[in-house]
Amino acid sequence: MMSQSTVTFLLLLCFVCFAGTVKSVAVGKSSSSLGYIKTSCSTTLYPKLCMQSLSVYANKIKGNPQHLAEAALSVSINKAESASVYVSMMTRVKGLKGRESQAVKDCLDNMKDTVDRLSRSMKEMGQTGRSTSQSDFSWHMSNVQTWVSAALTDENTCVDGFAGHSMDGNVKTAIRARISDVAHFTSNALALINRYASKHQA
């Protein structure tokens, strides 16, 4: 008969082996998901940014194109909301006047529209997964693509509003950098949304 210490040792050994197996399986799934994200991101204009922002969602995405598009859209919404708050703060900067003041106010309106359109797109994305026919899917997907494209236009419009050397300065530099960053995320989201649409139609 084995001693109690031997039994304890064997049980501990089994536990360690089991834990190692579970960890290996988990890592394997994660690696597979990361590979899928990397391949998908290679079709975007900013693949490195795409990979960096979406890798944390690997276990949720799990090779699902809808989940991937939704994750990218979620990142874009968060960035747009943050940028909108930032631009709102910039409207209170002392010394703003003339074209510069108007450009900041117009940009704030653009960013509010961006947040609204991206948020509506996220809700509509949920409908695509519940579509019962191709025509139903295409209807919801068309809405998503239209709103995300419009959001990207709003972001570019904000940046264009500061065109010209007359407005060169810290405010212009700060806002354009922040909004350009948001536009990159939105561009990536739109690319992955289009990829999801094409795969579903195929």
Automatic annotation (TrEMBL):
<feature type="signal peptide">
    <location>
        <begin position="1"/>
        <end position="24"/>
    </location>
</feature>
<dbReference type="InterPro" id="IPR006501">
    <property type="entry name" value="Pectinesterase_inhib_dom"/>
</dbReference>
<dbReference type="InterPro" id="IPR035513">
    <property type="entry name" value="Invertase/methylesterase_inhib"/>
</dbReference>
<dbReference type="InterPro" id="IPR051955">
    <property type="entry name" value="PME_Inhibitor"/>
</dbReference>
<feature type="domain" description="Pectinesterase inhibitor">
    <location>
        <begin position="32"/>
        <end position="192"/>
    </location>
</feature>
<dbReference type="GO" id="GO:0046910">
    <property type="term" value="F:pectinesterase inhibitor activity"/>
</dbReference>
<dbReference type="Pfam" id="PF04043">
    <property type="entry name" value="PMEI"/>
</dbReference>
<protein>
    <recommendedName>
        <fullName>Pectinesterase inhibitor domain-containing protein</fullName>
    </recommendedName>
</protein>
<keyword id="KW-0732">Signal</keyword>
